[in-house]
Amino acid sequence: MSGLKTVEEVVASQLNDANSGVNFSVGDTINVHYRIIEGEKERIQVYQGVLIADKNRGVNRMITVRRIVANEGVERIFPLHSPRIAQIEVVRRGDARRAKLYYLRDRVGKSRRLRDQRRGLKHIQ
Amino acid sequence: MPAALLGRKLGMTRYFMEDGTNVPVTVIEAGPCVITQIKTQDSDGYSAIQLAFEDIKARRSTMPLIGHDAKADAAPKRFHREMRFDEDKMTEEYDLGQNLDVSVFEGLMYVDVISTSKGKGFQGGMKRHNFRGLEASHGVKRRHRSPGSINGHATNLGKGPKIKKGKRMAGHMGNERVTVRNLDVISIDTEKNLILVKGSVPGPNQGFVFVRESRRLNKRKARLAKG
Asked: Which of A24, A58, A118, B149 has the fewest CB atoms within 10 Å distance of its CB?
């Protein structure tokens, strides 16, 4: 048998390396620079919010970013390796004690905020 | 030249196109294949080439097959399949022992994939033929997934008492040859012998598949393929 190749190996070239160097984790406030194509033109839209979930591995990796727009919660799910993502930057490091921050959906007001990780040893890049 | 190759289905994933759209793809490791026999009208009564794929330990093959492969100067192979042609002339561009790799699909927009579907065992009418079953209530007792009436036994074949042939009922499902036509070719990797097709392909991962150039395109796809 010609070696049991797996799909993960063979599609490694699909990974978008625009964000490979960025070190972010759940709880951080991040800026997602998203390419928007309008007819011929292409522009970049920045979406800022709290990273509340990081799902799947490899080319399927998805991140959920939550923000408050006009007093209404908005969540966008981005395929991390999509070529439409131009850049990801960390604005603020949050201190999250669990992997999925779905409880933030039920929070209102000040309790919606996350502790800054700078209290600890880690700091903003 | 009708292109065809044998291969293995590796699995499914997603593929981002240049414009950022994202398509579901099946990754197929196709070839390299060796031509182990060329059949002509004179020798066999029809025209075809026989392709062989994947080396196998000699002790796992059989003597007749080892000899057959050796005629084409090839090591023993696991899979052998024929690709039929309409006339002898089309086989002339192939030589015995010639290697074919995934580059034969270059420039093609659509392929057919033939494979054996996953076996589902003995299944009822609802799963096997998409019957609706009976109602959940209104007096239905212990017959909720039954196929219902299978019609009268007397009249169908003239002489009865038999049910009409081909009546869809419960039975063995899957594990049969399935052809999926006109799958889009998303990309081809000649280095790793991979072909990525849009959508799903019958059979399990690591299953054996036969990939060939599309034979029956609908009008729209035919126009696109001509470019």
From this structure: B149
Contact B157, B140 (CB under 8 A): no
Residues of A in contact with B22 (CB under 8 A): 79, 82
ipTM entry: 0.74
Q: Which residue has the tokens 């561009």?
A: B93
pLDDT digits (tens, 9 = 90+) for B84-131: 888 877 777 888 888 888 888 888 889 999 999 999 999 999 999 999
Domains and CATH numbers, chain B: 4-119+177-226 (2.40.30.10), 120-173 (no CATH)
- B14 has a pLDDT exceeding 60: yes
Tally of domains within chain A: 1
CATH code for the domain of A47: 2.30.30.790
